[in-house]
Please model this.
Amino acid sequence: MTNYKNKRVNEVAVILLDRLASLEDKPSILRAVELKALYAEIPLLPDSEKGLFGKEINALKMHLAELVAAHKDDTEKLPAIDVTAPIDINVQTDKTPRLLSSQFGSQHPLVSEIQYVCEIFYSMGFNVEMSRQIDDDYHMFDSLNFPKDHPARDDYDTFMTTEGFVAPAHTSTMQNRMLKKYKDNLSLKKPIAVMIVDRVFRNEDLDARHEHTFYQAEGVYVDKGVNVGNLLATLKTFLGRYYHQDIEIKTQPSYFPFTEPSFEIALSCPFCKKEGCNICSYSGWIELMGCGLIHPNVLKMAGIDPVEYTGFAWGGGIERLVMMKYDIEDIRYFEAGKLEFLRQFK
Ligand SMILES: [Zn+2]
Model:
């Protein structure tokens, strides 16, 4: 197959053509050490042989490049497959693929816990709404009172497309939409009471407590005369029902551009009843979520008069709640798809 006049070039050509056939990363053949070695041998040759030797190496390299390019054309001609379809749609085979029977399946723990959280809030008079998994800069920042170029935007480092779409870093992206959607409640003398739940995204360094993709739940409540006491009572009631025990909560001041005043909520450790354990780092308290009274500018941007109405909002990660409920030590288990983990929740 190879007919290079130079014996060395011929030898290398046989080796490389043979390797190319079984190579998965075909273009890497053009960086093969044998090829580099041939070029390195040129200066060592007598002047009379250099010309032909160099020419033949170039010819070999060109030949390899053509083969790589031809292979690429082949792969482009492969029929398209639907990666979301069951295996037997894409693989034409007489044998039935070995799939687990659905009787061994179960709901993902996050799905059942999200349903449970929604049920509790629904019973407290909240409507439940889904968020979006792609949104825009206005709903991510502007409608939530983040001034342009304000450093607070850096706390919500997420993924963006070149067209300016944002993978929401929190469910608060829905606040403006929900306030507008339920605004008419207020003139009917009914409060706006909505719970929003969905996936959110962060550009995070991953570890046992941080994931790039997780679920968040968010509450928004607006009426006349709403105060911090209403906020704390709502959260305390929810947490007590979620953990099936009387939970104490404490607040510490925090900062979010879309609430004023803003708080972080910590709850008394449901495992050790404040005596100290490894889950609460022996402090007796676990920090859980951010909350506060909705900033007047956020109400104004949704067309609600902040002099007449006030409201509260809170938001927190669902995984965190579930991890504490079942003593799960690593947040990455939720998205890992490991059956050993999932089967424990059957
Ligand atoms: Zn504890």
Observations:
- The mean pLDDT is 90.
- The chain has two domains: 7-76, 109-345.
- Residues 269, 271-272, 276-277, 279-280, 284 surround zinc ion (CB under 6 Å).
